Amino acid sequence: MFFYRDEQFSRLFIVLSCICLFFLTAVCQILLRLVLEAMRRDGKYCLHAPIIGAGDFAVETADRILQGPITPCQIAGYVALPGQRVAAHDAPVYDLRDLPRLAIGSGLDEAILAVRHPPFAEIPAILQMNFRSS
Questions:
Q1: In 43-88, which residue ranges form alpha helices assigned H by DSSP?
Q2: CATH code that applies to domain 46-133
Q3: So where are the chain's domains?
Q4: What are the residues facing 77 on neighbouring strands?
Q5: pTM of the predicted structure, to 2 decimals
Q6: Whole-number Å distance between alpha carbons of 70 and 6
Q7: Phi, psi (degrees; rounded to nearest 5) at 68
Q8: For residues 116 and 56, what is the distance between their CA atoms, to the nearest angstrom?
Q9: pLDDT, tens digit, for every residue of 101-129?
């Protein structure tokens, strides 16, 4: 409407509109974060995901996910890789062979892969080796 020549708007109106829009956007964002946090605390409408990996890096990743403002999420457990030192104690720790049983009919939405770089390259071989033997 600013470019429509029949109506004229003062600069004060434009500046006040921008300020109001900024504050309304900030209030909406704060309200959305409060709603997401309430949903996270209740455990409703949240993402249920296991973390593939059970070491220190996986625990740090879980902490970042739970404290971050991304999506309400509950950690369903950790899946320990072969030869990995288990550092997770706040949720159940499963063996890699349990992954197919966890994936079917357990209400999990996603799986989060949380391993450092060197084992990351070995993941396809580990998965093939473990799922062929089961």
A1: 56-67
A2: 3.40.50.720
A3: 1-42, 46-133
A4: 50
A5: 0.61
A6: 45
A7: -80, 160
A8: 10
A9: 877 777 788 888 888 776 667 777 766 76
